[in-house]
Amino acid sequence: MFGYAGRVLYVDLTTGKTRTEKLPQETAKSVIGGIGLGMHFWLTNSKAKVDPLSPENPLVLAIGPLSGTMFPTGGNGHAFISKSPLTGGVAEAVSHGTFGTELKRAGYDAVIITGKSKKPVYLWIDDDNIALKDAAHLWGVSPAEVETTLKDEIGDYYIRVAAIGLAGEKQSRIANIINDQTRAAGRTGLGAVMGSKNLKAIAVRGTHDVAVAKPDLFVEMVQDFHERMKGPAAQKHRTLGTVQNLTINNTLTCLPTNNFNNSYFLDAGKINADVLNEGYVTRIIACNSCAMRCEHEAAIKEGTFKGTMARMEYDNLWAFGPNCGVANMNYIIKAAERCNYYGMDATSVGSTIAFLMDCHEKGLLSHEDLEGVDPHFGNEKAIYTLTDKIGKREGIGEKLADGVKVAAEKIGKNSAELAMQIKGLELSGYDLRCLKTTALAAAVSFRGADHNRSGIYAVDIRGTVDRLKAEKGSGKIVKDHEDIYNIIDSLIVCKNAKGTFDEEFADMAKLYAAATGFEVTPQELRQAGERIQALAKLINKREGLSRKDDTLPPKIMNQPVADDGAAKGAVVTKDELDMMLDDYYEVRGYSKDGVPTDAKLKELGLEKYAKEN
Amino acid sequence: MVKIHQRKFISADPEKCVGCQVCEYACSYSHEKAFNPIKSRIRLVRVNQLANMAVTCRLCEDPACVAACPRNALSQAEDTGNIVLDKDKCNGCGWCIEACDYGAMMLHPETKVVYVCDLCKDKADGPQCVKWCPEEALTIVTSDTLAQKARISAIRKLFQEKEEKQQ
Predict the structure, then answer these.
(1) Interface residue A210 vs chain B (CB under 8 A)
(2) What is the mean pLDDT of chain B?
């Protein structure tokens, strides 16, 4: 096979046995790779209603047909897929860096990990040689240090490592899986799944060639995209970075502040992209094969936290900054760095701390609960202390380490009204009350509240649609964006490079054919995007999620935007949400309960799942 | 023999290098029609997130690799200063790899003989890594141009500092 490695690795941690199977060509064409391939393998290797933290829940690692090639951003991604301990539905997260390239060169498109090891181990994939090695000495160690240690121990400085930290070991439902020091498969608690299997890390070394079907055309496309990436489409990422969203969102009063009590942050000027870039960003580095390099490495140059370094993006800056009312960049960077250290999703951690602050200010917490921490909005010391406690599951951290939904259950007293989550996954930094097409996308997102399943906030923010209106037609817009994102996450290319594709499906179909030799039309690729969406919905349906879970947090529906400006007073009402859901399901060919109809499944070639519905 | 100040080699500017490894792909693809960093004659080193730099042969004066070879398999080309391998004489012993301070000599995974940057001498448009580098971090230099660049940059910095102090 071209593009694809053509092999799948199965690892049973309970028995220690491993085997490889051929990747069927039909499977590859049908679900492309990445999250599509991962969801396919998860669904076919698991039983309904599996406990996400049990040995029976498979953890799937998958890469796409472009991994290990020279295509900019396409060479470097990988995805983890499982059942989420945070949402109870499908878990998926994509990360970039260099890890995926190595797996391709080792000769695998996917790794399906089942069972549970008796003692801590790491998986060592050395081309054809697969071993489970003792990881007792790595237990409790940060992902970055695991990487360094394994390079020394194995004696090869070009191995690639993805590892969990202490949070994953302690099965925190907001734990992530970190690779290449600063990159994360962040959302939906995949680190906890890995921890539940006593699997500390996956180390990979691959030495095989990666070949594409039409090398001349492929390299010509690479050259063309190099040029595009030097142009305006990548300008934002090449310069100030995603943190620019902070100022844009603030201007539109859609910057969630103080756990969504406000939508405008008065102190945004103290932590905006200019402040970050001028005072902290020491280097902007690239993932493997990328020609637009966007990873902003922020380092603290003086004071108590001197030497602290973290990759800063809008999401982690927002979660610890505006959402906690904090305008102290040093503490925000420190909290982000602690998340990498413990291996936790910064968006979820910051949001959970913001939730605690809200509970505290509304008098829902007793003095004993707080153990000397004063979690009021704006207390920068609290974000640091609490991140540490969450990472260690220590004291009040025990209550918070499983995200806001569980924290609200533990705190009780109607605190669920303050929990900013959908399906259990914490919201990211976009105020859904005044970005109504984004609100629909967040409600229907199969992995829970997240902007990364459609990137739809762009149409609201750019004014392509009236962001304050819930309208018929939004269903189609959301569907179109989701289908593209499903392909982006399956090929895998980088979402930050989306703008460099002139016509997404046409460009991507050409690219896919050049890499794999499988000719697809843009329409067929779009349908693959739809198929992947349906697979995710089938997983969620099988695991018990339905229309009732395609919803919005109470604040989004009941607490109007408080700040002056065009958005003042905005909420998304139940009627608006229902109207948009009906519209979306109809466009998707799903039932009123949000499940793909048998006719739709047949159209997508998924009829074997029809009966189970 | 070409004089040292005329000898051209590829140099990476650590201030510009972002660690993307595009040079490795360009090299392995143009030499061997394969995407595979371990077949690249230039290798990226990322010591940590802040320290990235690609390294390849520097065409040294009195190259240690040539001196180390017990089988006279390596020589330095008279006209360019390139390190040239006689494949039939090389047995892959690795003494040249040990001798090179820059890690520029490598053992090829398939041919089992050493290989090193040839400055893409057969390519009309010159070294492919330089052509492809998205950050223009790679340039073809002589030791003279390196020294010139260093001088200019040092003096620029000095005068900038002076100006800043005066402001």
Answers:
(1) yes
(2) 93
